Amino acid sequence: MDCWKGAAGRSWIYPTLIICANGFFSTMRPSESFLTPYLTGPDKNLTIEEVTNQIFPVWTYSYLALLFPVFLITDYVRYKPVLLLQGISFIVTWLLLLFAHGVVAMQVVEFFYGMVTATEVAYYAYIYSVVSTDHYQRVTSYCRSITLVAATIAAVLGQLLVSLAGVSYFHLNAITLASVSLAFVCSFFLPMPQKSMFFHRKEVSETLPGPDKVVAPVHPDRPSSCQEDKGSVSADRGPTPEQQAGSARPQNHVLRVLVQLSKDLRDCYSSRKLLYWSLWWALATAGFNQVLNYIQVLWDFRAPSHSSAVYNGAVEAIATFIGSATSMAVGYVKVNWDLSGELALGVFSAMDAGSLFLMHFTDNIWACYAGYLAFKACYMLLITIATFQIAVNLSMERYALMFGFNNFVALVIQTVLTVVVVDSKGLGLDISTQFLIYGSYFTFIAGIFLIRSIYTIVSIKCRDTSVVGKNTDD
After folding, report:
1. Which residue, 431, 162, 170, is CA-closest to 295?
2. HSE-up (13 A, CA, CB side) for residue 273
């Protein structure tokens, strides 16, 4: 039995199966497409204004406050404890959703859900710490695909249960509670990683690296044997005075990590190309998350759930499928992204803006649904392009850091939008006017990149013309 456990711990298959099971059950939440109807219905009896202006903004604020400390803690404790914390946060969130009442209680729900989303970093980072680089592509595909499948199944199941079986929103949330509880149980069976990105670069038995080596990124393509050889040499020589000082003062270790993080970020954004792609990522993701957070409120405003049939689950399932299809299609499109990439960002951002304006000006719920499908498809297409464009121009040891920082900037922008546009202490705009603001926001994004793309194309044409003219003169 012990031999089997040892083999399972060394195999990439076992942790991949467990983390995929965790991802499936944590994403399989059939009640999520019906959150706003549940809160404004007889179960909670809240008003649209309370949900929009007082409750939902708490998620954005808590997510922002928790994201950076959770990122550091996740690396320090080596992922698994944070996955357990995520499971506990899921369970608390849905217990409160089921049995608590009132605005303050639902604000506490949003805080714990902010903890859930802040700890998602552990799910995507964990698997890279327990499998070899040879399996990165495969396990990444499995982990991403399983959450997509779970989200689709959850949306379809929720819609079928509501429309055909007449299941109440309360019981949908009970099913979700059971699913996230299973995800929590799965977390216990994950093997504990022995390394992490910054705080645990080497095996636990090895001595702490010196200041010049503590956070130096190890390229994932480098053979592990080379890392072990270096560690054994260091161990044979014994700890240096600097290492002893570092061991005595762990806070200096944390400081060195933060300094190295800042240096890595500076290097990443020194490339103008990466800076422009990251700028779009942060701006568009902020708007996309804001729309996702309040789209159900708009649907409920256009077709009140207490007097109309609700098809939120079906729309989310279709949107997920279209988004995955457009993302996959990017891999088969042959385009000179250096020349046309920014033009694509501008054009499809303009289509996003048009979709949001449609949702503002129409009173037809089906037009709102169609606008949302177009909006999500365009965003998923562009975020896929931005992801691989950043990845191909970036060294592998920094891509997770850069993606994380882009998302952090996006969250800061989203928080500003929430404070100014949504929060009752700010403008506290009604939901229809909010979508007018979001449409104008994406128009601004489209304008930036259309102007930039025109400048890029004209510059390249002029340069080519000058080169041709010079060759002719010669």
Report:
1. 431
2. 15
